[in-house]
Specification:
There is one protein chain. The chain is an alpha+beta fold. It folds into three domains: 215 residues, FAD/NAD(P)-binding domain; 92 residues, D-Amino Acid Oxidase, Chain A, domain 2; 83 residues. The chain has 13 helices and 20 strands. Helix 1 links the parallel strand 1 and strand 2. Helix 9 packs antiparallel against helix 10. It is globular, with a radius of gyration of 24 Å.
Length: 446
């Protein structure tokens, strides 16, 4: 069954992937005394998008023991702002106004530096964290016997026998793809084009570190302040918009796209694209039919990927990894509890994803846009949305009640908008009929 000539190692837990989720799991499992081998196919630092953290990331980072490092490398982020028709041009959703217990701020970071720091911290915490080691095959021989074939970037191959496997392989989704669990989300498909600029206009005062979100006809755009005067700027749009890219260079395509939002483009009037580098990537949403089984679990993007509009990726990965460690620990110590805890965690994770998804799927719609452009705090609904933006979507009953109420108010507004559209449509038909017949159709018959 196995090549006897290939070197074999043994461990308690093999962690596939060296992003935030994998590093979090490796750190916490090593602290619990397990022999952990973490495997990252690339070498840190490696580029990754997703630079904006959420306030609810901070307690996780504090428990990991890296919050001071994040504070030193990050840009202070007090709020998220959304384009509006008011005097200053945007509405500020300050995290300090959240109604739960989320921290009043977050940070924005260079992901390559952030990810590198977390992986090194896992190593310092006792995990055998390896880089340039790619898992090319996973084969489960029993509940506590999984074999991983590993190939290094210098051409060597070896095999690991693990009692448990944590898949944090990101959008490679190694185990979900292998086990045919990955499910494309046809409701929400998008792609992104982005670059980094120097000299972009910041918000003033305490808003200088805000992430700014803009809408345009095909999707949404972001501006994320980063260290050393750099601004991450990009657009997420439906795939049909990206068909217009054919035959055009990425720089021209990004420039032409950003010009579709005058308010954003104005902030780039004196900015310069760094190194002329523009990236295009698919943001295709998906999830997995299940989160795990006996002896294995999926965390972060290896389990599911949402549209990045609310910067949920790192938080779902790290908080999910923290909870997954409890499942792994129980599985190795009290196997009878494993599947029950796994089901409970999957239910919890899907519930938070569904709360984010409610806003994501409707974000570009006219009703949701009106609610973000002209927010009202009736019944603390605006503060409930701020708590959602902070990532407080799991355990705070007041926040969850406000979000349920927000959904009800949203539904009422959709109904009103539909009725208004019908009246306007009937009015236009009546006007057209009157013009065609030369008569005067009464408006009350419209």
């Amino acid at each position: 069954m196995h090549d006897q000539d290939m070197a074999t190692e043994q461990c308690d837990v093999a962690v596939i992937g060296g992003g935030p989720g994998g590093s979090t799991a490796a750190t916490l499992l090593a602290r619990r005394g397990y022999k952990v081998i973490a495997l990252e196919k690339a070498h840190h630092p490696r580029f990754h998008i997703g630079e904006s953290l959420l306030p609810m990331n901070l307690p996780v980072l504090e428990r990991l023991g890296v919050l001071d490092k994040v504070r030193a490398m990050g840009v202070f982020k007090a709020a998220a702002d959304f384009e509006a028709d008011n005097e200053r041009g945007y509405n500020n959703f300050a995290f300090a106004r959240a109604i739960g217990n989320s921290p009043p701020h977050a940070y924005q970071v260079w992901r390559q530096d952030f990810d590198k720091m977390l992986y090194e911290h896992a190593r310092e915490s006792g995990a055998d964290a390896r880089e340039g080691h790619e898992v090319v095959k996973v084969e489960q021989a029993g509940p506590r016997e999984t074999w991983l074939d590993v190939r290094t970037d210098d051409g060597r191959s070896y095999r690991i026998q693990a009692r448990y496997v944590v898949d944090a392989s990101g959008r490679d989704a190694l185990l979900a793809s292998k086990n045919k669990l990955r499910r494309k989300n046809d409701k929400h498909q998008s792609a992104a084009v982005f670059g980094h600029f120097r000299g972009a206009e910041l918000r003033t005062g305490e808003d200088a570190g805000n992430i700014s979100i803009y809408n345009f006809d095909y999707g949404w755009m972001w501006m994320i302040p980063l260290p050393n005067g750099v601004m991450s700027v990009g657009a997420v749009a439906r795939p049909e918009y990206f068909k217009q890219r054919k035959g055009r260079g990425n720089v021209d395509f990004l420039t032409d796209t950003l010009k579709l939002c005058p308010a954003l483009w104005k902030r780039l009037a004196h900015a310069e694209l760094i190194d002329g580098e523009v990236r295009v990537t698919g943001n295709y949403s998906y999830d997995s039919a299940r989160m795990g089984g006996v002896g294995w679990i999926l965390i972060g993007d290896a389990f599911a990927f949402l549209d990045p509009v609310f910067s949920s990726g790192v938080y779902l990965a790290t908080s999910g990894a923290e909870k997954a460690v409890e499942v792994v620990d129980a599985a190795l110590r009290e196997p009878k509890r494993e599947l029950g805890l796994l089901r409970k965690l999957e239910k919890r994770q899907r519930a938070a994803m569904a709360r984010f998804s409610f806003f994501i799927y409707r974000f570009n719609g006219p009703v949701m846009q009106t609610m973000f452009r002209s927010p009202r705090n009736t019944w603390q609904l605006e503060q409930g949305v701020i708590s959602m933006l902070a990532g407080d979507l799991f355990d705070t009953p007041l926040v969850l009640r406000k979000l349920r109420l927000f959904k009800l108010v949203y539904a009422v507004n959709v109904l009103r908008d539909w009725r208004r559209s019908r009246v306007e449509h009937k009015y236009r038909l009546a006007q057209a009929r009157a013009q065609f017949t030369g008569g005067n159709t009464p408006l009350d018959k419209a």
